[in-house]
């Protein structure tokens, strides 16, 4: 088994998952998610089918890869906001930081959001992460504002904020130019 | 085939889908969605497995049955609002009307919302209906306010409103008493 199709003997190769995602998301965005197969992705990315499946078990995994990095930036920012900052300002700042994607992730993020928007059935893949983030917002606001997580106002505001920020990101992917953080910031100002 | 297990010969029986849903949603809510099988539902509802599957192809279908009726009430209300009413007031009124469930649907609605909340993976079943409703809100507001459906403000507000209303319904199912429409109305006042 020393000469597999994807790795000539004696020439180990490291495959960059980000590069593979970008190729896949470009294809999904341009040709339609359902019209592109894992084989198409492997061919376009220049990797074997086996290597592709090792990195991404299915097409949906190729789509949702970047959500965790957004969530990590958002969470880190929220933890580091000054303790005396009003919760609404802290959330707006954390969303702006979360939505500040590294330069080399902007294009893939745009394709990703467009593909998710065009295929509502994909949304369930990220549903657990999204609802986990919303629950964290509820806990953050409740803690900072001295109310319980069962408070109606906190719950409704957190869900509205999360949905508004997500809609702003999608709007940017469809209509916006440049980077998305300014659009997200404008959106949250609307909901303040 | 005149004597099937569920229908003795000469005694045709009409099965009420609403009654079956209520039995199923009580079980899902009390014992956990994953712990209850279609066989359990059939036995508790006193119908045959075959009759149950004819009405509901799977457990998720038992959960999402009532969403369409909410959406129909909401849409009907929106169509009937006076043409000169500001869009935000029309939406608030339509949500209040949509959330006014008939007396005999209140208990099943509470169980339904609790089951969906406890099982985020179920959310994708209703995702298409929910995102369809949100798109309709965008069109309604754009039309009434004289802007395009590509407007950032309209898009963000519509998503925030839909998410806030949905969060209010879920809050009612977990913590509220009586009927849900007052809770939804309070939530939308927060976002106005």
* N- to C-terminal distance of chain A: 60 Å
Number of helices of chain A: 10
Q: What are the low-pLDDT stretches of chain A, counting only 5+ consecutive residues below 50?
A: 1-5
Largest sheet of chain A: none
Chain-averaged pLDDT of chain A: 89
Largest interface: A-B, 32 and 32 residues
Features:
homodimer; 192 residues; mainly alpha; elongated; disordered N terminus
Account of the 3D structure:
2 copies of one chain form a homodimer. Chain A is mainly α and 192 residues long. Chain A has helices spanning 17-31, 38-45, 49-55, 59-64, 67-79, 87-98, 106-118, 123-145, 152-175, 181-191. The longest helix of chain A has 24 residues, at 152-175. Residues 1-5 of chain A have low confidence and may be disordered.
Topology:
Two copies of one chain form a homodimer.
Chain A: H1 17-31, H2 38-45, H3 49-55, H4 59-64, H5 67-79, H6 87-98, H7 106-118, H8 123-145, H9 152-175, H10 181-191
């Amino acid at each position: 088994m020393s000469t597999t199709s994807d790795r000539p003997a004696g020439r180990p190769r490291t495959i960059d998952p980000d590069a593979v995602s970008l190729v896949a998301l470009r294809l999904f965005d341009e040709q339609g998610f359902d019209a592109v197969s894992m084989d198409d992705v492997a061919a376009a990315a220049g990797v074997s089918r086996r290597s592709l499946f090792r990195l991404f078990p299915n097409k949906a995994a190729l789509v949702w890869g970047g959500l965790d990095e957004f969530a990590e930036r958002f969470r880190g920012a929220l933890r580091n906001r000054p303790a005396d900052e009003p919760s609404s300002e802290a959330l707006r700042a954390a969303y702006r930081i979360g939505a500040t994607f590294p330069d080399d992730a902007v294009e893939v993020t745009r394709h990703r959001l467009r593909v998710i928007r065009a295929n509502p059935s994909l949304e369930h893949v990220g549903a657990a992460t999204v609802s986990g983030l919303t629950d964290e917002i509820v806990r953050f606001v409740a803690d900072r504002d001295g109310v319980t997580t069962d408070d109606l106002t906190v719950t409704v505001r957190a869900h509205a904020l999360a949905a508004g920020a997500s809609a702003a990101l999608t709007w940017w992917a469809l209509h916006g130019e440049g980077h998305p953080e300014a659009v997200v910031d404008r959106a949250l100002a609307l909901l303040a």
